[in-house]
Amino acid sequence: MVTGNLTAGAFLMAAMVAPRDISVGLLMLAGVGFGMASANVWAITQTLAGLHAAGRWAGSQNFIGNLSGAVGPALTGVLVDRTGRFLWPFLITGAVAWSGAAVWTFLIGPIEPVVWKMSISVTEQPVFDGPTLSPVLSEE
Fold this sequence. Notes:
The structure is a single chain. The protein has helices spanning 2-17, 20-38, 41-49, 54-83, 87-106. By secondary structure, the protein is an all-alpha fold. The protein has one domain. Helix 1 packs antiparallel against helix 2 (20-38), helix 1 (2-17) runs antiparallel to helix 5 (87-106) and helix 3 crosses helix 4 (54-83). It is elongated and about 55 Å long.
Protein backbone atom coordinates (compact mmCIF):
# COMPACT_ATOMS: atom_id res chain seq x y z
CA MET A 1 0.00 0.00 0.00
CA VAL A 2 2.75 2.45 0.95
CA THR A 3 4.89 1.59 -2.07
CA GLY A 4 1.93 1.89 -4.42
CA ASN A 5 0.89 5.30 -3.07
CA LEU A 6 4.46 6.62 -3.17
CA THR A 7 4.90 5.29 -6.72
CA ALA A 8 1.61 6.77 -7.95
CA GLY A 9 2.33 10.15 -6.38
CA ALA A 10 5.90 10.35 -7.65
CA PHE A 11 5.03 9.41 -11.23
CA LEU A 12 2.01 11.76 -11.31
CA MET A 13 4.16 14.67 -10.24
CA ALA A 14 7.01 13.70 -12.56
CA ALA A 15 4.60 13.51 -15.49
CA MET A 16 3.85 17.22 -15.09
CA VAL A 17 7.44 18.35 -15.56
CA ALA A 18 8.53 15.77 -18.16
CA PRO A 19 8.28 16.20 -21.93
CA ARG A 20 5.01 15.04 -23.47
CA ASP A 21 6.28 11.70 -24.83
CA ILE A 22 7.85 10.74 -21.52
CA SER A 23 4.88 11.93 -19.46
CA VAL A 24 2.62 9.36 -21.14
CA GLY A 25 4.87 6.55 -19.88
CA LEU A 26 5.06 8.17 -16.46
CA LEU A 27 1.25 8.30 -16.29
CA MET A 28 1.17 4.58 -17.11
CA LEU A 29 3.60 3.93 -14.27
CA ALA A 30 1.41 6.05 -11.99
CA GLY A 31 -1.45 3.72 -12.92
CA VAL A 32 0.70 0.74 -11.94
CA GLY A 33 1.36 2.41 -8.59
CA PHE A 34 -2.37 3.01 -8.13
CA GLY A 35 -3.03 -0.64 -8.89
CA MET A 36 -0.47 -1.65 -6.28
CA ALA A 37 -2.12 0.65 -3.74
CA SER A 38 -5.73 -0.29 -4.41
CA ALA A 39 -5.56 -4.05 -4.91
CA ASN A 40 -6.08 -5.01 -1.26
CA VAL A 41 -8.16 -2.08 0.01
CA TRP A 42 -11.39 -4.02 0.52
CA ALA A 43 -9.68 -7.11 1.93
CA ILE A 44 -7.80 -4.95 4.44
CA THR A 45 -11.04 -3.14 5.31
CA GLN A 46 -12.77 -6.43 6.09
CA THR A 47 -9.80 -7.70 8.08
CA LEU A 48 -9.47 -4.56 10.20
CA ALA A 49 -13.21 -4.19 10.83
CA GLY A 50 -13.88 -7.81 11.71
CA LEU A 51 -17.13 -9.69 11.26
CA HIS A 52 -19.41 -7.31 13.16
CA ALA A 53 -18.31 -3.99 11.68
CA ALA A 54 -17.18 -4.79 8.12
CA GLY A 55 -20.37 -3.53 6.49
CA ARG A 56 -20.44 -0.23 8.34
CA TRP A 57 -16.73 0.32 7.85
CA ALA A 58 -16.89 -0.49 4.13
CA GLY A 59 -19.93 1.79 3.75
CA SER A 60 -18.08 4.69 5.36
CA GLN A 61 -15.03 4.02 3.20
CA ASN A 62 -17.19 3.88 0.08
CA PHE A 63 -18.90 7.17 1.03
CA ILE A 64 -15.58 8.98 1.41
CA GLY A 65 -14.29 7.50 -1.86
CA ASN A 66 -17.40 8.62 -3.71
CA LEU A 67 -17.20 12.06 -2.10
CA SER A 68 -13.72 12.48 -3.56
CA GLY A 69 -15.16 11.44 -6.92
CA ALA A 70 -17.45 14.47 -6.74
CA VAL A 71 -14.97 16.97 -5.30
CA GLY A 72 -12.00 15.97 -7.50
CA PRO A 73 -13.50 16.87 -10.90
CA ALA A 74 -15.01 20.10 -9.55
CA LEU A 75 -11.71 21.18 -8.02
CA THR A 76 -9.86 20.20 -11.19
CA GLY A 77 -12.26 22.29 -13.28
CA VAL A 78 -11.82 25.33 -11.05
CA LEU A 79 -8.02 25.04 -11.04
CA VAL A 80 -7.75 24.50 -14.80
CA ASP A 81 -10.16 27.38 -15.42
CA ARG A 82 -8.08 29.74 -13.29
CA THR A 83 -4.60 28.62 -14.35
CA GLY A 84 -5.17 27.20 -17.83
CA ARG A 85 -2.98 24.17 -16.96
CA PHE A 86 -3.33 20.80 -15.28
CA LEU A 87 -0.22 21.30 -13.14
CA TRP A 88 -1.98 21.97 -9.83
CA PRO A 89 -4.58 19.19 -10.11
CA PHE A 90 -1.81 16.66 -10.76
CA LEU A 91 0.35 18.00 -7.95
CA ILE A 92 -2.58 17.89 -5.53
CA THR A 93 -3.41 14.33 -6.59
CA GLY A 94 0.21 13.30 -6.07
CA ALA A 95 0.20 14.95 -2.64
CA VAL A 96 -2.99 13.08 -1.72
CA ALA A 97 -1.32 9.80 -2.77
CA TRP A 98 1.70 10.64 -0.64
CA SER A 99 -0.51 11.52 2.31
CA GLY A 100 -2.14 8.11 1.88
CA ALA A 101 1.30 6.53 2.13
CA ALA A 102 1.92 8.52 5.31
CA VAL A 103 -1.38 7.32 6.81
CA TRP A 104 -0.52 3.69 6.02
CA THR A 105 2.94 4.17 7.50
CA PHE A 106 2.20 6.13 10.67
CA LEU A 107 -1.49 5.79 11.58
CA ILE A 108 -2.66 2.33 10.59
CA GLY A 109 -1.27 -0.37 12.79
CA PRO A 110 -0.89 -4.04 11.99
CA ILE A 111 -3.41 -5.55 9.59
CA GLU A 112 -5.43 -7.55 12.11
CA PRO A 113 -9.00 -7.24 13.38
CA VAL A 114 -9.63 -4.30 15.67
CA VAL A 115 -10.93 -5.33 19.10
CA TRP A 116 -14.19 -3.45 19.53
CA LYS A 117 -15.35 -2.56 23.04
CA MET A 118 -19.04 -3.16 23.55
CA SER A 119 -20.94 -0.92 25.96
CA ILE A 120 -23.66 -3.54 26.48
CA SER A 121 -23.56 -7.28 26.38
CA VAL A 122 -25.05 -8.50 23.14
CA THR A 123 -25.69 -12.15 22.46
CA GLU A 124 -26.18 -13.32 18.94
CA GLN A 125 -29.78 -14.32 18.41
CA PRO A 126 -31.75 -14.80 15.26
CA VAL A 127 -33.96 -11.83 14.44
CA PHE A 128 -37.06 -14.01 14.03
CA ASP A 129 -37.73 -16.86 16.45
CA GLY A 130 -41.06 -17.92 14.96
CA PRO A 131 -41.84 -21.11 13.08
CA THR A 132 -39.80 -21.84 10.02
CA LEU A 133 -41.40 -22.64 6.70
CA SER A 134 -40.17 -25.55 4.68
CA PRO A 135 -41.09 -26.24 1.08
CA VAL A 136 -43.53 -29.01 0.24
CA LEU A 137 -41.64 -31.52 -1.87
CA SER A 138 -44.52 -33.79 -2.81
CA GLU A 139 -48.13 -34.37 -1.87
CA GLU A 140 -48.18 -38.14 -1.80
